[in-house]
Amino acid sequence: MALTTTSNQADAEDLVQETLLRAYRAMDRFDGRHPRAWLLTILRNTNANLHRRQRPGTIGDWELIRTARPAFGRAELPSAEDSFMDHEMHADLAAAVLALDPRFRAALILVDVHDLSYAEAAAVMGVPVGTVMSRLSRARDRVRKRFRSIAHNRGDLS
Amino acid sequence: MTGTLRQMLTCHWSARRIQRYLDADPAARLTPGEISRLEEHLATCERCTQVAAEHRALHRALSLWSGGTTVDPRSVDRVRDFLSTMNDEDSP
User: For B27, which of A24, A129, A148 is closest by C-beta distance?
Assistant: First the structure.
């Protein structure tokens, strides 16, 4: 999450450390529920504060994801479908995601890429769960329609 | 004519629930009745089945990227060291 947020390994590390420090200091105000969402909210606020001091930025910067490659030492070889997704679809898919409104893109990345629940994504984005669902639905529908036309043109998703 | 209209309404009803069905998120679960109705519809409607397949494929494609976001193990070690330092400083 920090990597996606900052697009930079060193910045991500700083962000995680600052987040943990703030979380530690705020521990007595934590009610014990939804620890991941609580921590991610602190991370979001910390990132916003850091950017306020440094440079503009957005949650869910797609650049890092777009340029990412599978980890070394993968336990098993990717399936043919995975290979197709990795090597053929990623540029088109990334373009489709990049074309989204940043608010919709953030919902899509948090839920589908980072596997956050609706409630966790809502905490990170600072919006109600219903808003996350609405943005996610719109984002997916837009990307899916583009994804569909690309896949159908290639004959890979019939 | 009535059958076609009913089918269209069911497709519309299903389209509004397919993502929640696939996500099965605790914050927005479908009721057992809704799940049954949706699954019955998907069993017979080619178009909605296609939409569900596209959602699955899209989610799969997007989730692959999370595996590509690698964290440098040295970063993890440094964060752990940082946590240990915080803990040590707080210990009496």
Answer: A129
